[in-house]
Amino acid sequence: MSAVAQATAGDAYSIASRLEAGLKGAPRGLLIDGKSVQAVSGKTFATLNPATGKEICQVAEGGAADVDLAVQAARRALTNPAWCNMSAVDRSLVLNRLADLIERDAQELAVLECIDNGKPATLTKVVEIEGSIKTFRYFAGWPTKFGGETLPVSPRSGAKILNYTVREPVGVCGLIVPWNYPMSMAAWKVAPALAAGCTVVLKPAEQTPLTALRLAELALEAGIPAGVFNVITGFGEAGAALVDHPGVDKVAFTGSTEVGKAIVRGSTGNLKKVSLELGGKSPQIVLPDADLDAAAASIAAGIFFNQGQTCTAGSRLYAHASIHDDLLGRIADHAAKLTIGNGLDPSVNFGPLVSEEQWDRVSSYVEIGQREGAELVCGGARPNGLGDGFFFQPTILANAGRDMRIVREEIFGPVLSALSWSDPEDLVAQANDSDFGLSAGIWTNDLKQAHRLAGAVKAGTVWVNCFNLVDNATPFGGFKQSGWGREHGRQAMELYSEVKSIWVNLS
Ligand code: NDP
User: Fold this and answer.
1) Per-residue pLDDT tens over the stretch 84-109
2) In the chain, fewer beta carbons within 10 Å around the N or the C end?
3) Residues 277, 410, 487, 494: which is the catalytic one?
4) b/e per residue, 56-77, with b = 16+ CB within 10 A?
5) What domains appear along the chain, each with residue ranges and CATH number?
6) Ligand 1: residue whose CA is nearest its atom 21
7) Active site residue 277
8) Is the pTM of this model over 0.90?
9) Distance of CA 184 to the CA centre of its chain
10) Which atom of ligand 1 sits closest to the CA of residue 410?
């Protein structure tokens, strides 16, 4: 992949003004059957720039009637010969072409995501845009490699049988994504679904609808037939209508555990296949022999990156008592060095939270933590001088206790809850004493301890002396209430396909 050029401050601000000017006027429509259309109800809603609190534009508010039209279009597209008979090589080419177009428009997409979501444009470019390009290129490699097997069956009759399996697309997929990584979460689902030959209806979060619409337009330009990739913008009701719809064969969801449970309940009508990537409360476990410089830098990044709005955020710190104070001081130093502000400024590496609602939620947890006995080490409030944006300082709460809400619940903001430990057996019990099991970090130079802990921690991903590394090649997902199924890798292709076993009597 060629490097995506970095924007200068002037560039990002001027691209943002041009984009915002272009978005004024008619509301952004839904994308159904290759066309931009307004909602059947005519309703629209505002999407805001979290750095200013101001409206960017109006967006169509899709409801059940629109979901129905999108699902019908996706069902038709499933049997459109231009899609279902597309060769594996051509499917691969079309996904690579989509990656090329994202690369062509990388600068604009990064700024669009920055103004809609708040995260700094420089980070957006790397995480959301380059990440999505990689995702489409990775899954573009699968259509030519994803097949069945021939199996050595032993029928009682002694008949000579050829048994083989084939993979078929699971069908129409409802993809429901959150606001924290809008474009990459969409790519993580759209890319394997299309690689497997499915058709999709994507429901982006109400806070961040803009890049999803643009992605679907680029898919059309890439040559993906109309109706294969539809987008319904709107609220949770639109997501619920998708989950309820009998024409949807599978739902893939990333978001809160609470909504994940509602999706499981709502999907029973036609027993849709469901995959869920839900919340987390990931422990960062630091042993006394750890490299504290490296650990502090990575633990700070692990909780403050994307303003803590990351499902894998390392939000529970378990530092050995002998190094606890030293480590906390170093993490606080990293927090103090973050540059908070409007993400269009390339020197900014810490933007606003996504919405006022999220600001209130994070702030309330800081209050709850202190009320329950935790001690505020740094942050905890709105930084001065940044206007009406939804900014919240990087925050550390020390002396956290295992039963405190700040240790048990997903805050989804830049708040680290720190605990100290001295009994290794109790450490594992504490780290696993959570409803979640998405990820964990382990910091030690003792190889034996690293492997012992990696085996003992109940989490879908374990990072040893690193944190938050994600790659399309390796499975991603959670134990316990952090979800069902794994995204990325072969596992993702399996999520979007059915296996058929075929028996041929050769006797
Ligand atoms: P939600 O889980 O509510 O939203 C995620 C997506 O689901 C959005 O597109 C949302 O639409 C949609 N949705 C909401 N209700 C339903 C429903 N009943 N059926 C189908 N789809 C639905 O997350 P929130 O945005 O409300 O954030 C709340 C909390 O969830 C955060 O504070 C955080 O703790 C957690 N969260 C976790 C994420 C993760 O990656 N683990 C990601 C995002 C949030 P709409 O946007 O309109 O509500």
Assistant:
1) 999 999 999 999 999 999 999 999 99
2) C
3) 277
4) bbbbbbbbbebbebbbbbbbbb
5) 14-278+484-500 (3.40.605.10), 283-473 (3.40.309.10)
6) 239
7) yes
8) yes
9) 6
10) 34
